[in-house]
C-alpha cells in the first residue's frame, strides 16, 4: 500500500511539472481583427496592468496594428515598460537578411517615466498610404530623445487594411502573469485624412485569431479588451 502511495505521489509531481512546463517556453495571444480592410489607422488607450511578472526573457506585449503589416504598443520585460514598433522585421528576416539589415524595421525603447498600474497610455498608428507609418505614444513621436517619426515598412502594402488589437505573452519559465490589462476607447481611422474615426465596439464585425487562449482570463472581448494571466 505504501509503495502504491509513493508511486501515486511521484505521478502527481510529474504531472504537475509537466503542466507547468507546458505553459512555459511558448507564445500566447488574444488577437482580434476587424473583418473590414477599409481602415488607415487605429488608436486606443492601454490601461497598465497590476501584479506583473515577466522574468528570464519573458515578455508581455500589448499592441495595436494595421493587419499583419505593422504593430506597435507597450511591452514589459526586465522589470520595465517599453514602447515598440514593428514595421516588417520578420518579413525582412524571411529574405535571409541579417539582424543589422532588418533592424530599421523594429524599434523599441524603455519609457522615460515608468507607468504605474491603472495608468492610461495612448497608442496611435497611422497608415500614410505610401508604405510609411506614424507611431505615437501619448500624442508624441519622440521617446527617449529618438524621433521615431515616420517608419518605413519593409514591403509595399495597401493604403487601407484590417486593424487589430492584441494581448500577447512570451513565457519562458511558467511564471509569467499580470492582472487587468485592457485596451479601451479603441477607434479605427475611417478615412485617409483622419477626420473620421469609428468606435471599435460590440457591433464591429471581428475575426478572432487566438493562440493558447487558455493561458488567459478574458474579462471582456473588446470595448474594452481586458485580460489577466
Which residue ranges are poorly predicted, with pLDDT under 50 across at least 5 consecutive positions?
5-22
Indicate the radius of gyration in whole angstroms.
20 Å
**Number of E-state strands:** 19
Mean of the pLDDT scores?
87
Total DSSP helices: 3
Shape: globular
Helix content: 10-25%
The main pleated sheet reads as: 8 strands, antiparallel
Report the span from N to C terminus.
40 Å
Strand content: over 45%
H/E series, N to C?
HEEEEEEHHEEEEEEEEEEEEE
Structural class: mainly beta
Report on this model:
- The protein is mostly beta strands and 229 residues long.
- Helix content is 13%, strand content 45%.
- The strands form four sheets. Strands 2, 8, 9, 12, 15, 16, 18 and 19 form an eight-stranded antiparallel beta sheet that branches.
- A hairpin with a 4-residue loop joins strand 8 and strand 9.
- The protein is globular.
- The termini are far apart.
- About 8% of the residues have low confidence.
Amino acid at each position: 500500500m505504501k509503495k502504491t502511495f509513493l508511486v501515486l505521489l511521484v505521478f502527481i509531481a510529474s504531472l504537475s511539472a509537466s503542466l507547468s512546463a507546458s505553459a512555459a517556453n511558448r507564445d500566447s495571444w488574444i488577437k482580434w481583427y476587424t473583418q473590414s480592410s477599409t481602415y488607415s489607422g487605429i488608436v486606443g488607450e492601454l490601461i497598465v496592468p497590476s501584479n506583473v511578472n515577466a522574468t528570464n526573457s519573458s515578455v508581455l506585449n500589448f499592441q495595436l496594428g494595421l493587419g499583419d503589416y505593422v504593430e506597435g504598443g507597450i511591452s514589459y520585460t526586465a522589470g520595465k515598460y517599453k514602447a515598440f514598433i514593428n514595421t516588417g522585421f520578420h518579413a525582412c528576416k524571411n529574405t535571409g537578411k541579417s539582424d543589422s539589415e532588418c533592424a530599421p524595421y523594429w524599434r523599441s525603447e524603455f519609457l522615460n517615466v515608468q507607468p504605474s498600474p491603472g495608468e492610461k497610455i495612448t497608442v496611435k498608428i497611422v497608415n500614410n498610404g505610401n508604405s510609411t507609418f506614424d507611431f505615437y505614444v501619448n500624442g508624441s513621436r519622440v521617446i527617449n530623445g529618438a524621433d521615431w517619426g515616420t517608419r518605413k515598412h519593409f514591403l509595399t502594402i495597401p493604403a487601407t487594411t484590417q486593424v487589430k488589437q492584441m494581448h500577447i505573452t512570451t513565457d519562458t519559465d511558467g511564471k509569467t502573469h499580470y492582472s487587468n490589462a485592457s485596451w479601451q476607447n479603441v477607434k479605427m481611422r475611417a478615412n485617409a485624412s483622419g477626420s473620421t474615426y469609428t468606435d471599435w465596439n460590440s457591433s464591429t464585425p471581428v475575426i478572432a485569431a487566438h493562440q493558447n487562449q487558455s493561458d488567459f482570463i478574458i474579462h471582456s472581448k473588446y470595448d474594452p479588451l481586458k485580460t489577466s494571466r
